[in-house]
Amino acid sequence: MTFPELSYYQRTFTRLILKDEIVSAREFEDCRFEACSFTGCTLKGVKFINCTFNECLLSVTKSAGSRFLETQFTKCKVTGFNWSKTDAIRDLSFSECQLNYSDFSYMKIPGIKILSCEAKEVDFTEADLSGADLQNTDFENSRFYNTNLSGADLRGARNFYIDVKNNVLKKARFSYNGAVTLLDCLDIVIE
Questions:
Q1: Cα 146 from chain centroid?
Q2: Which residues of 104-115 are buried (b: 16+ CB within 10 A; e: fewer)?
Q3: Distance between CA 114 and CA 160 in Å, rounded?
Q4: Quick one: pLDDT at residue 95?
Q5: Measured distance CA(93)–CA(59) in Å, rounded
Q6: Span 55-73, pLDDT tens digits
């Protein structure tokens, strides 16, 4: 067993390599994960409280009833992660990460931070991203439908398609180029 204890506090895990393993009913508080890999793993009822992941790999990782509270990911590859299967998310932060093919649909994640990331083909359908900080992120082919982006900061974000008729954008912030792309859904000609 990789984690023989049920609870870990202020521990640092470095270069831990897990592949296709099941991690169940563990709690990590104020822990650091450095250059760790959880490829293809399943996290069942795992709690991460005030944890940081730096240069970690969580590709095709599954979450079943896990919690991510005040958790930060920096320079991580968290692709194909279905966040909608988590039990709770609060104060989640991604910086310079790859989030491609992830799913945040139907989630209430106000204030989430996705900064300078690659978030291609990510599903944000009916998610609450109010007050989110999404600056300088590439949202190529990501899905925004009935998404609450009120008060969100998308300055410097690129390659997104957000239909102004099917999303909430009140007080959302865009850079000039980003604001112009909002007109794409209106089927108008700008000369």
A1: 18
A2: bbebebbbbbbb
A3: 14
A4: 98
A5: 17
A6: 999 998 999 899 999 999 9
DSSP letter, residue 91: S
For residues 119 and 102, give the distance between their C-alpha atoms in angstroms, rounded to a whole number: 8
Token pair of 1 as six digits? 């067993």
Identity of residue 65:
G
pTM of the model: 0.92
* Domains of the chain, CATH where assigned: 27-93 (2.160.20.80), 104-191 (2.160.20.80)
Is there a contact between 85 and 106 (Cβ–Cβ < 8 Å)? no
Q: Token digits for 120?
A: 């291609």
Lowest mean pLDDT, pick from 66-75, 101-110, 164-173: 164-173
Query: Quick one: tokens of 179?
Result: 């604001």
Q: Which amino acid is at 114?
A: I
The answer to whether 23 touches 40, Cβ cutoff 8 Å, is: no
